[in-house]
C-alpha cells in the first residue's frame, strides 16, 4: 500500500493542483512562470540581442520568480548588483594579475567576503561565483564579454521579476486560511479538555503536550501572517488577499491560554485546599471554557454573550462567595486569563 501511494503521489499532487486552489496550484503556477521566463530570456538573449553563450539570462530568470512580487523586485536589484560587483572584480584581477590561479583565489575570497554584506541577501554568493566563472573561462580580460554577462543577468532577472509581478502574482491567502483553521481547532480542543479537567479537579501531563502543539501552530500562524503581508507589497492582486486579522486575533489568545493552563495545573496539584476552587466554582469555569472554545471554533462573536454572563458569575463568586469561602485564591488565578481570552475574542 505504501509503495503504491509513493508511486501515485505525483499524480495525486497534480490532480489536486488542478482541482483545488491551494498550495499545489500556486506551486504549479510558479513553476510554469519560471519555465516561461527562462525560455523568453534565452530567446531574447540569443535571437534578439545575439549574445554569445547567454547562460546567465535563463538562470537569473528562473531564480527571480519568487514566492512574492516584493521578493522578485528586491531580488532583481540584489542579483544585478552582485553580478555587477563580480564583473568588476574579475575585470580588475584579470588586468593586474597575470596568474589565473592567483587571480581566481583572490576573486573568490574577495567576492565571497563582499557578498556576505546583508544588502545582497541570498544573491551575495554570486559576487564570488561570477568572478570565478569569468576568470576561469578567460573572459576577464575582454570588456565586451564582461558587459555581456552583466547584460544577460539584468535581462533574465528583469524578465523573471516582470512575469512574476504581472501574470497571476502570488498570494498566500490559502496558507492564512489553513493556519487559522488549524489553530482555531486546536485552541478549542485544548479549552474543552481543560474544562473537563477543571470540573474533575485533576491535572494531567497531556495538557503540556497539547500546549506545545498550540505553540507550534502559533509559530506557523505568525509565519503565514508574515507571508501574507509581504505578498501584498507591489502586488496587482493585493486587495483580493484574505484579511489576516482573524488569524492574528487567534494568535493573541496564546499568552492568556498558557496562563490559564498554568493556573489550572497549579490549582489541581496544590496540596493546600484554599488554592483549589470548589465544585460549583469549577463547574462555572468549565462552562466558561467550553463557551470560549465554541466561539474559537465557530468564529461567531455573537456567541460571546454566554461567555460574558459566566464571567459575571465568576466575578460574583470572587466578591461574594458561597459556602466555598476558601476557593477564591484558585478561582482568581483562573479568572484573569479567562477574562483576557474573552476580551481578545471580542476584539475580532
UniProtKB/TrEMBL annotation:
Pfam families: FUSC_2
Annotated transmembrane regions: 28-49, 55-73, 85-114, 120-138, 150-171
Topology in the lipid bilayer: Multi-pass membrane protein
Highest taxon, organism lineage: Bacteria
Intracellular or extracellular location(s): Membrane
Boundaries of every Integral membrane bound transporter domain copy: 41-162
Classification via InterPro entries: Memb_transporter_dom
Keywords: Membrane, Transmembrane, Transmembrane helix
GO cellular component, one term: membrane
Protein name, UniProt field: Integral membrane bound transporter domain-containing protein
Annotated organism of origin: Amycolatopsis decaplanina DSM 44594
Amino acid at each position: 500500500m505504501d509503495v503504491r501511494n509513493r508511486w501515485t503521489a505525483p499524480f495525486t499532487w497534480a490532480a489536486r493542483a488542478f482541482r483545488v486552489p491551494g498550495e499545489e496550484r500556486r506551486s504549479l503556477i510558479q513553476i510554469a512562470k519560471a519555465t516561461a521566463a527562462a525560455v523568453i530570456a534565452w530567446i531574447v538573449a540569443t535571437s534578439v540581442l545575439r549574445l554569445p553563450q547567454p547562460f546567465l539570462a535563463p538562470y537569473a530568470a528562473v531564480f527571480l520568480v519568487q514566492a512574492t512580487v516584493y521578493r522578485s523586485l528586491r531580488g532583481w536589484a540584489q542579483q544585478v548588483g552582485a553580478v555587477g560587483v563580480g564583473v568588476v572584480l574579475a575585470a580588475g584581477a584579470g588586468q593586474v594579475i597575470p596568474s589565473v590561479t592567483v587571480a581566481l583565489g583572490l576573486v573568490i575570497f574577495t567576492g565571497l567576503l563582499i557578498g556576505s554584506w546583508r544588502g545582497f541577501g541570498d544573491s551575495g554568493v554570486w559576487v564570488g561565483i561570477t568572478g570565478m566563472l569569468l576568470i576561469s573561462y578567460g573572459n576577464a580580460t575582454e570588456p565586451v564579454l564582461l558587459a555581456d554577462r552583466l547584460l544577460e543577468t539584468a535581462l533574465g532577472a528583469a524578465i523573471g521579476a516582470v512575469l512574476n509581478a504581472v501574470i497571476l502574482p502570488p498570494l498566500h491567502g490559502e496558507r492564512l486560511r489553513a493556519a487559522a483553521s488549524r489553530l482555531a481547532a486546536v485552541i478549542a480542543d485544548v479549552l474543552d479538555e481543560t474544562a473537563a479537567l477543571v470540573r474533575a479537579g485533576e491535572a494531567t501531563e497531556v495538557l503540556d503536550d497539547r500546549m506545545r502543539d498550540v505553540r507550534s501552530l502559533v509559530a506557523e500562524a505568525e509565519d503565514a501572517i508574515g507571508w501574507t503581508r509581504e505578498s501584498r507589497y507591489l502586488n496587482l492582486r493585493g486587495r483580493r488577499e484574505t484579511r489576516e486579522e482573524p488569524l492574528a486575533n487567534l494568535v493573541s489568545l496564546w499568552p492568556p491560554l498558557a496562563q490559564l493552563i498554568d493556573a489550572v495545573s497549579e490549582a489541581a496539584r496544590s496540596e493546600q485546599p484554599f488554592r483549589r476552587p470548589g465544585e460549583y466554582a469549577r463547574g462555572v469555569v468549565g462552562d466558561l471554557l467550553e463557551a470560549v472554545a465554541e466561539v474559537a471554533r465557530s468564529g461567531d462573536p455573537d456567541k460571546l454573550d454566554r461567555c460574558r454572563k459566566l464571567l459575571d458569575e465568576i466575578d460574583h463568586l470572587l466578591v461574594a462567595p458561597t459556602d466555598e469561602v476558601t476557593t477564591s485564591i484558585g478561582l482568581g488565578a483562573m479568572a484573569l486569563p479567562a477574562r483576557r481570552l474573552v476580551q481578545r475574542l471580542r476584539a475580532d
